[in-house]
Amino acid sequence: MQDAGFVRKAFAGIASRYVLANHVLSLGIDVLWRRKTARLVAEMRPQMILDLATGSGDLAQTLRTACPKAKILGADFSVPMMREAQCRSFHALVAADGMSLPFKEASYDVLTVAFGLRNMASWPEALTEMRRVLKSGGHLVVLDFSIPTLPLLRPAYLFYLKNVMPRIAGWITGQRAAYEYLCSSVERFPSGADMEQLILSCGFASVKIHRLSFGIASLYIAEVA
What we know:
By secondary structure, the chain is α/β, with parallel strands linked by helices. It contains nine helices and seven strands; from the N terminus they run H-H-H-E-H-E-H-E-E-H-E-H-H-H-E-E. It has a seven-stranded mixed beta sheet, sandwiched between helices. Strand 6 (206-212) and strand 7 form a beta hairpin.
């Protein structure tokens, strides 16, 4: 179980500098990850998209460009983060907790969640709730950090994650403790086959895995039967 109260407080504290910190820490690669995600979603030709844990609206805006005919709603439990989305001209927003979504069953064709599932109180409960609001034949799209498996890259990345990233993020946002938590959560978060099994155990019919940037991030696309 993640500490939902701490996560809420952490995101409120870093909201105004969150986008800048992401771009600096990833050297801008996070922009490419979101574009790839949006391209794959566009191939699904969805009419209704829910972008959960939308935060500052980065993925929602990318989806809006890639899927101009779709209705896109952003949802997040952090109001300060959604205010940042409003400042960046994304206004289709609702305050909602991923553990108890205020939507009817089978409401959406696609549900996206970028760098958000990792911070939810219970991953299985959150995934089950996501499954509930997706239509038959719909898709869950999860984008998040993962741990590379390459022998040389893995230790270097873990060192960066534990020792370098929190320092840089702390300098940018003034909230080092928040990033120490967020960075440590990456190592605990299941990835690869472990994430595939977790998603399947929550009622999804199939999962495809796309490893991004040598496994620094992973994209999981699950289909509802």
